[in-house]
Amino acid sequence: MSDAAEQISALIEATVESLGYELIRVTYGGGRKPTLQVMAERPDGTMGVDDCARLSREISLLLDVEDPLPAEYLLEVSSPGVDRPLTRPVDFERWVGFDAKVELSEQIDGRRRFRGKIQSYNDGVIVLSSDEGIFELAFAEVSKAKLILTDELLDAVKKKAPQDQAVGAEG
């Protein structure tokens, strides 16, 4: 996470939680007009268009007052989506049985990228299984992880949250 994203995350997290959402990820970057992307969801994993709009309004007001970013930017508030990023231990616990891509900050046996089914998450260790074997990965070493879009994942998400869409606003 960039310094700006970390700063924004710390700034907005209490507001996001007070509105009944969990902050999933904050990213900031881009070209001439950078994008501040905020991903959030309700504790039950749902996030509808109205939720995104409400959160966008509240975050926009907070950022207008605090003014942590020096230049013009685009604020985008969204749900994590179907092939969501896995940023917290609870994400790995919730999505046991689904396929994921995990990238580590350091190599293990000459590789940093792993792909497989999440078998378990316990005490900071993610267990992935694939045709190549079973891998035990330290959550603390994960630099990036996300679910892989599969029919099984689509079916599970459709049953849980039929409406995942993004809402944007100028910042």
UniProtKB/TrEMBL annotation:
InterPro entries per UniProt: Ribosome_maturation_RimP, RimP_C, RimP_C_sf, RimP_N, RimP_N_sf
Keywords: Cytoplasm, Ribosome biogenesis
UniProt domain Ribosome maturation factor RimP C-terminal: residue ranges: 86-150
Localisation per UniProt entry: Cytoplasm
Listed transmembrane segments: none
Main location: cytoplasm
Domain Ribosome maturation factor RimP N-terminal: residue ranges: 11-83
One Pfam family from the record: DUF150_C
Coiled-coil ranges from the UniProt annotation: none
Top-level lineage group: Bacteria
Gene3D superfamilies: Ribosome maturation factor RimP, C-terminal domain (2.30.30.180), RimP-like superfamily, N-terminal (3.30.300.70)
NCBIfam families per the UniProt record, alphabetical: PRK00092.2-5
Family statement: Belongs to the RimP family.
Function: Required for maturation of 30S ribosomal subunits.
Record's protein name: Ribosome maturation factor RimP
Species, as recorded: Kordiimonas pumila
Name of the gene encoding the protein in the UniProt record: rimP
